[in-house]
Specification:
Shape of chain B: globular
CATH superfamily of one domain in chain A: NAD(P)-binding Rossmann-like Domain
Strand content of chain A: 15-25%
Distance between the termini of chain A: 65 Å
Strand order of the largest sheet of chain B: 1-7-6-2-5-3-4
Number of strands of chain A: 13
Number of helices of chain B: 10
Structural class of chain B: alpha/beta
CATH topology of one domain in chain A: Rossmann fold
Radius of gyration of chain B: 22 Å
Number of strands of chain B: 7
CATH architecture of one domain in chain A: 3-Layer(aba) Sandwich
Shape of chain A: globular
CATH class of chain B: Alpha Beta
Number of domains of chain B: 1
Oligomer: heterodimer
Helix content of chain B: 40-55%
CATH class of one domain in chain A: Alpha Beta
Low-confidence stretches of chain B: none
Strand order of the largest sheet of chain A: 3-2-1-4-5-6-11
Largest sheet of chain A: 7 strands, parallel
Mean pLDDT of chain B: 88
Chain lengths: ~350, ~300
Amino acid sequence: MATKRHKPARSAPVEKRQAERRVRARRESDAGDGGRIESGAVVVTGICGRLGRRLARHLHRERPVIGLDRRAFDGKPKDIEHHTIDVRRKKARELFRRPDIGALVHLGVMHDPRLGAEDHHTWNVIAFQKLLEYVERYDVPKLVLLSSANVYGPRPDNPQFIGEDAPLLGANRFSDIRDLIELDMLAQSFFWRNPRTETVILRPTHILGKVQNAPSNYLRLRVVPTLMGFDPMMQVVHQDDVVRAVRLALRPGVRGIFNIAGPPPVALSRAVKMLGRSTVPVPHTLARAGVERLWRWHMTSFPAPELDFIRYVCMVDDSRAREVLGYRPKFDLASTLEAVDEERWV
Amino acid sequence: MPARTALARLGDVAAEDVLPLVSRLWGGTRRSLDELAVRLVGPDFEERARLLQARYVDAGGDPFGLDLQTAKYALMTCAFFHRLWFRTEVRGIEHVPEGRALLIANHSGQIPIDGAMIGAAVYLDHDPPRMIRAMVEKWSQTLPFVSTFFSRVGQVVGVPENARRLLTMGELLLVFPEGTRGISKPFTRRYQLQEFGNGFMRLAIETESPIIPVAVVGAEEQYVNLGNVKWAARLLGMPAFPMIPQVFLPGGQMPLPTKYRLYFGEPLHFHGDADEDDAVIEEKVQLVRQTIQSMINRGLKERKSLFF
C-alpha cells in the first residue's frame, strides 16, 4: 500500500530527470563543450549594474547575451535578451534548460551596506546557490564569478602581494564582506565537485571608473580624508580592464582563481595628488569614531571598518592571471585614476 | 557673543599670520636642511640619489613604497653618523654584487644602529649606490607615521613572501639571524655570536642568492650594558631590558662615538634543496656563522684603539 501511494508522487521528478538527461545528451552530441563555450549564449546576472552594462556592450557583438536581473535594462541594445526576474524564481531555472547556454557570468553580487545583513545574506548566498544548482543540473560548461581582492582583507601582517592560495581573512574586521567570502568559497567547492564545468573566480583589486563602489566613490570626494600617518600602497584597476579579464576568462580551457590587478601599485597620497584633490589627514581613532557616528546618522555611505583599506595594504599578486589568462592591464595609472571623474553613465 | 568674536579673531590670526609663518619656517628649515646635506654628505650625494632613483623609476616605481625623496632625509642622518660620529671604516664593499644578495651580519649595540650603518655604507661607499632592504616587525604597521616612515625608507613587513619577492627583484636584503638575542647582549659577552636562525639559509638556497657575510666591529661599545633585567622586560613586554648607566649622564643618551669598522666578506654560494632537514641546513648556517666570527676576531685583533 505504501508503495502504491508513493508511485504517482514520484513519477513527476522521474519524468523531469529523464527530460534533463535528454537535454544533457543533446548537449553532448553538439560539437563539444569548447564550441559551446566559445559561441554559446552568455547569461550575465546583475547586467544592469554599471559593470554589467559595460560587459554586455563588449560582449553582445560577438555572441548572444542574456541578461538576468531584478532591475529593468534601460537603453538595452536590441540583440540582448533580458529577463527582469529574480534568479531564485522558477522562470530563471527554465532559462538554463535551454541547450544554447554557453556560460554564466555572475556579477549580481549585491553590496549595499545599508541593507540589513540578513537580507543581504539571503539574497546573495541563496541566489548564488540556486545558480550553481542550475549550472550543475543543466551542464553549463562555464561559470565566471566576479569576486574581489577584498576577500583577503587589509591587515597589518599581509605580505605586500597576496597570492591566490592565501586564506580569505577579510571578514575578520569587516563582517559585510562575509557574503562575498561565502560566495567565493561556494564557487571553490563547486570547482572541485564539478570538473565538467570550467569554473573561474576573478578577484580584482579596487575597480575604478563610473562604477559605484567604495574606492571610486572615495576618490570622487572633493576633499579626500586620509588617516594621519598612514599611507599604504594600493592597487587600482580600470573597469574596462576588468571587463577584458572577464572576457579572457570566458575562453575555453581557462579555469581556476585569478587575482586581477591594474598598473603598478601607488601610494594612496600620490594617487590622490594625481587626481588633483586635496587631503585632510584625520587621526585614525577620531576617524573611526567619526565615521561610525556619521554612518549611524545616515550621513555617509562608508562603513567604519572600511577605513582599514586606507590604513593597511591589501594588494594581490596577479602573476597567475598574466601567465595563464594572458591578461595585461591596458590602462596606465593616470587614465585608471581619471576614470572616476568621467561623465556618469546615462 | 564675545566668545564667538574672539574665536573668529583667533581664526583670522591663524589664517593670516600663523599659517604663512609656519609654511615659511618649514620652507626655510627644509632649504637649510638641504644645504646642510650637501655640506655633510658631499657633493655627489644628489648625483647618487639620482642614480638610485633611475634604478627604481625604470621599473615603474618600487612596489613596497620606497620613496627616495623621503629616504634622502633618513640617509642624511645616517650619513652624519657614518661619516662624522662613528667615522666608519668600510672594507670589502666591492664584494657586494649589483644584483640580489643576502647580507648576513652580527647584531649588537642595544639599538639597531648597526643596520643603519650598513645601509649608509652600501649607499655612500658602493658603486653604484644601493639601497639596503630589511624586514620590520608586523606590529609596526599598526602605528601611524612609523608604518609610513618604514615603507618610505624601504623597510618591509617581515613575512617570508616579502623577502622572496625582494630577492627576486634583485635587491639587497639585510638579515640579522641572531635577532634580539644578539642586540641586547650584556657587555661581558661582547663579540660572541649568539645562535643563528635557519630561515635565511632556506631563503638563499631557494632564490639562489649569494650570502655576503658582514662583521660589525665597534657597535658593542656604543652602549655599555651591564646586564638585562628579566622581570622588567617581562613587565614592559620588551624583548630585553638592558641596564645602561650612561643614559643618566648628560648627553649619554647618544651612543659613545666609538670607531665603527665594517667588514664585507666574499660572497658565499649555497646549493641544494631549500626544504631539506634542519640538520642539513644547520651545517650550512654554521659555516656562515664561523665565517662571520672569524672576521670579527680578525677585526678585533687589528683594532688598536676603541675610539680611533
